[in-house]
Amino acid sequence: MKQMSLIRRRSLLAAPLLLGASSMLAQMPRPLLIAVPPFLSPSAALAAFRPLRQHLESQLKQPVELYTARDFRELVEQTRRGEHDVTLLPAHLAGLALSDWGFQALAATVEATPVLILLRQGSVIKTAAELRGKRMGMLGRLSLTTAVASLWLRQQQLEPGRDLTVVTQPSMSSAVISLEQGDVEAIAVTRTQLNLMPPGSPGGQMTLAELSDIPTPIYIARPSTPVAELGRLRRAWHSFVPDPAAPQTVVNSQLHEIARADLQRAARYREVALQQLEAAGLSTR
After folding, report:
1. This prediction's pTM
2. Which candidate, 124, 172, 214, 249, has a CA 20 to 30 Å from the CA of 190?
């Protein structure tokens, strides 16, 4: 399945109809391509990233196109092939990309967010032990949220795939709906992901457990980005002003330089990233 465009500018798609349009198009700067994780549905991502996209277009004076992938595996494969100028990767994978794959640091988002195990409103489940034999919705196997939730289950003497069924969700939007409809009895999400749910999403979920904080996704630029261009991109990203009236999320936060502390938080999950990549049959080098 090909990557799916979330945002495309009509001016880039429309056939030239006016005299000289071909020449004008030739003079337009090429669009900046940004890949984001598939943790939202396309329509939700379109809305969530719109303020940042508009800010970047204003600052960079060039079109910006956002893309997502079918799943985290495809996102990693596309990133390794250098298909996008910038990628927003889960922190554990971004840390590996920066330390081992030659990618360049662009911007950090919020510092950390807790992983939540949620139940639908009115659930009779009261303890982790009562998840035995049930179904839990999680993002793909390369998600840091999934890794932390799986570790927690094992600490509760529950082996994912044996003692309960793990139902892979294409996005957090799908996970929340699956929970509401009773397709799963529990889901694993982060607080910032939950804050990103679009208006009208099912609410009122019950928290069964709040797990440890995890580092949040990081923006990285591909290895071939020239120094001057990297500086230009950093200035644009770091000047983004979040909406103070909206909840703090990965999308709505003060983007800033990736500090040593950010890298240290990501490095704690280096082994998790390596194990996930190996289990998925992907190269770690």
Report:
1. 0.85
2. 124
